[in-house]
Amino acid sequence: MARHFEHGKLVIASHNPGKVREIGDLLRPYDVDVVSASELNLEEPEETGTTFIANAELKARFVAEASGLPALSDDSGLAVKALGGDPGVVSARWAGPGKDFGLAMQRVEDGLMGRTDRQAHFACALALCWPDGHCETFEGTVHGTLVWPPRGERGFGYDPMFVAEGRDITFGEMDPDEKHQISHRADAFRKLVAACFK
Ligand code: IMP
To answer: Mean pLDDT throughout 41-58?
Structure first.
């Protein structure tokens, strides 16, 4: 049985205001008082893990220990089958210091040149850790294929080249509400909420 979150403060182990807002929205129906790591002036640890789960866990563990409060983190990325799972945990880094995802998508496309297998999935790992070191982790995925050229101005990151299974528009073209129903993050959150917040 997973450990349940008892009402009160929960620190979102992220300095990304978009992520903090999205997580706050998802947890609104539950008795959770969400604060961000930035509000508490907490630093971000280096993401040295080789899996999404390991990185999510190290971020939440660090913040739970530093704050003395339960902490929730999210680590996500794109895994391309023909590239052996790359860019994976370094999905953000492929965009370089300028966070240029046009460049990151081009790098994926260059890697796929001449290959017929264009399967990929997005993964999202969530870790909920307590100050005593206990952690619960969950992983969500959405499978699909990669298209070229990229399409759509919505979403972020690799969204314009990703078409989820059973759809024909990219995440970059999709209404955000629809993406949030089927995304890797939605899948991981459903698992987290069922285990720890209900
Ligand atoms: P993180 O902030 O270290 O978890 O990095 C996640 C990176 O993975 C982002 O910068 C994006 O490049 C990519 N990523 C994660 N989720 C999505 C998504 O829903 N759409 C597009 N790209 C995503």
So the answer is: 94
